[in-house]
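User: Hey, my collaborator sent me this sequence without any context and asked if I could get a structure. I don't really work with proteins. Can you help?
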Amino acid sequence: MAQVRVRARRVPTWRALGALIATVLVVQTVTAAGRATDEAQAAWAVDGDVWVAERPIDAGSVIGAGDVVRLPAPTALRPVDAAVENPTGDRSRVALAEGEIVRIADLGVAGTGPIAALLAADAHAVTIPVAADIYIVGDLVGLLAILDGRILVDDGIVVSVQPGSITASVRDTEISRVVGELSRGGVEVTLVGR
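Assistant: No problem. I've predicted the 3D structure and written it out in structure-token form, which is a compact way to encode the shape of the chain:
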């Protein structure tokens, strides 16, 4: 009997290594695509409701029953501070456009008046005489010391307008400088670009 020689075909090591690397890359790509699909589905899943302005709401006004509606919203579009409780009866700190999601930061403290509702938690309101009635609620204003031209505030927000004066929201850290200058030599109001 003749001895049969089985000759094993040797695959070069570099080819085997290349095939292994290609297999690992394919598995990683498929796994990453599956993970991305799962994350996208989670982000666009509708698992909660938000309160949405049904019509424009003015800053400082009380939100009425017909002003907001509860609608489902995908997780990806829902702000982290979206109002989950019905905001009817609360005051709006900011103007809300029709279709805008109501956020907790948009709502004033319960029981506050229309001007106080516009103030941030770290702000005071100060009334300052003005020479021209050119300001409207929501304007960004600067407050300058009349005696030396120093900028006291460069990001005040007009929260109320009266003939001959405005009321501006000023941060807690700046209010003492403004009041001091009002009693010393006066304060000039300027418009600030956004």
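In plain terms: Residues 120-191 form one domain. You can pass these tokens on to your collaborator as they are.
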